[in-house]
Amino acid sequence: MVAEAREKSLVLHLAANPNPISIRVTDATADDLEPRLIQIVRNGHTQVVRTADGKDFVVNFGHVVAAHFE
To answer: DSSP class of residue 62?
Structure first.
């Protein structure tokens, strides 16, 4: 039996938008980003995030006030 890739959501709370943005990502992407997420937000890095459907989503974390995975 082949294991399916599960998905998580990266939830971004932007400074200028009261509604959070949710980006579906694979567990592999979440496992890569999660340990560095605090530092990425703190430093305001621009980061490419691979979405669950295989596309690249560029996030300017300089505009993100909070981020977490669900």
So the answer is: G
